[in-house]
Amino acid sequence: MRLLVVTAVQAELDAADPDGRMAGLVGGVGPVAAGVSTARALAADSYDLVVSAGLAGGFNGRAPIGSLVVADAVRWADLGAATEEGFLDLAGLGLAGGDVLPSTGGRWVADALSAAGVPALTGEILTLATMTGTDRRGAELASVHPSALAEAMEGYGVAWAAAQAGVRWAEVRAVSNVIGRRDRSAWNIPAAFDALRRAVAALAAAAA
Q1: I want to staple 202 with a disulfide (CB 3.0 to 4.6 A). Which of 14, 116, 152, 208 is the partner?
Q2: What is the DSSP secondary structure assignment for residue 133, as one 8-state letter?
Q3: Which residues contact 32 (CB under 8 A, 6 or more apart)?
Q4: Distance between CA atoms of residues 154 and 21, nearest Å
């Protein structure tokens, strides 16, 4: 099985696959950059599964720091309009698009991690073009999206590009911080990088 691992930045790719065992792509930060980069990579070569991988914020009480989250679906949670009555997604605006995307490769990833003895949570991962930096916004997202475990910036873009190319996709995130007030002193990036490395190593072994 040919896997393509897409990260936002080089540091994530270096941590995820330090030995270069898998095809890797630094796709850029945010859903647009990730989507365009992934689409170009899939047009240039053939892959069986695309994995959006990297760090994420975890919702308090749902995904602790150092844990792994495998998406069963991704949602672009800030695509829409902010109104006096609250946030409206594209459907609420009467527009097409922006649908929740169920993962087509998430089950394989979850099973591969389980078989390797690498614990992981499974649930919805939110894609946001603007990361959460306040407790108020974190609480709002947690309330509106009760099945969401984590938030990141690229998953929906990678998923959209893979779906358009007819390639299975998955998102795997290692939690480095709790969603809410932005406090870098409370983040644990080394623990998240270690979890990410173990996850990708397990996927590489399963795909071999």
Answers
A1: 116
A2: -
A3: 157
A4: 22
Tokens describing residue 112: 């591969």
Does pLDDT of 86 surpass 90? Answer: no
From residue 21, alpha-carbon distances to 10, 158, 199 in Å are 15, 21, 13
Stated as kind and residue range, the H or E segment containing 127 is strand 121-127
Tokens of 152: 């990141």
Based on its alpha-carbon atoms, the radius of gyration of the chain, rounded to whole angstroms, reads 16
pLDDT tens-digit profile of 39-53? 999 999 999 999 999
For residue 52, give the 3-state DSSP assignment: strand
pTM above 0.90, yes or no: yes
Domains assigned to the chain: 3-207 (3.40.50.1580)
Within 13 Å, how many C-alpha atoms sit on residue 25's CB side? 25
